[in-house]
Write a structure and sequence with these properties.
about 20% helix; alpha+beta; globular; 3 helices; about 30% strand; three-stranded antiparallel β-sheet; 14 strands; six-stranded antiparallel β-sheet; about 210 residues
Length: about 210
């Protein structure tokens, strides 16, 4: 797995071109029909069964899913997790995964969940890589044998019990959704960081249209 070099400060701007709209925007880097229940807005419904820190919204008529209750500015925006069809088929959005890793790479050194994991390796015989995993909406427990639920890995220093800088490794086998286990649910502190990243990305996209 390649190490993703994190750059500080956490916020980093990159130019991304949205071909369907022919417009450039800068983004922040740093299953079935029964999912749909309460109405969040005219065009979005909360996904039933999703037990993350904040709701997951299903936008209509596009079928796009995001953590924001307002429709995406661009089709395929990095704020969009993917698309859920009326038949319950999910198609992921690679741009969201890029945003996810950019955000987590920028915050993992100070994230309380990650630091607790690293602390568990203090006084170990050697430095070691640890996996950060999510749960699933259907199983609702961490399965450390499921590579699709590993979000990223990092090196924990045995002498200090702290995460080591520049050791963030994104998991190429990560899957946001699996038909068997449902959607990935992020650790609460990382979820909040990702939500903030999505909000920043949306603001930048809105600015690019003005």
């Amino acid at each position: 797995m390649p190490v993703l070099a994190c750059q500080q400060p956490m916020m980093r701007l990159t130019i991304v071109r949205h071909a369907p709209r022919g417009a450039a925007s800068r983004i922040y880097q740093a299953t079935n029909r029964s999912f749909m229940t309460s109405t969040a807005s005219r065009s979005a419904q909360q996904l039933a069964g999703y037990n993350g820190s904040t709701p997951l919204y299903h936008h209509q008529p596009s079928g796009q899913l995001s953590f924001l209750d307002t429709p995406p500015v661009f089709p395929g925006s990095p704020t969009v997790i993917g698309t859920l069809s009326a038949q319950g088929r999910f198609q992921g959005n690679p741009s969201f995964v890029d945003l996810l890793h950019s955000v987590f790479c920028g915050v993992y050194l100070d994230d309380p969940y990650v630091r607790d994991l690293a602390l568990s390796r203090k006084s170990a015989s050697a430095d070691s890589y640890l996996h950060v995993l999510g749960t699933r909406t259907k199983s609702q427990h961490i399965n450390d044998r499921d590579p699709a639920s590993i979000i990223f890995s990092f090196l924990a220093q045995s002498t200090t019990g702290l995460p080591v800088p520049n050791t963030y490794e994104p998991n190429p086998a990560l899957r946001i959704y699996t038909p068997l286990d449902g959607f990935l649910v992020f650790p609460a502190s990382l979820h909040q960081a990702l939500l903030k990243g999505c909000k920043v990305a949306r603001m930048i996209e809105e600015d690019s249209t003005n």
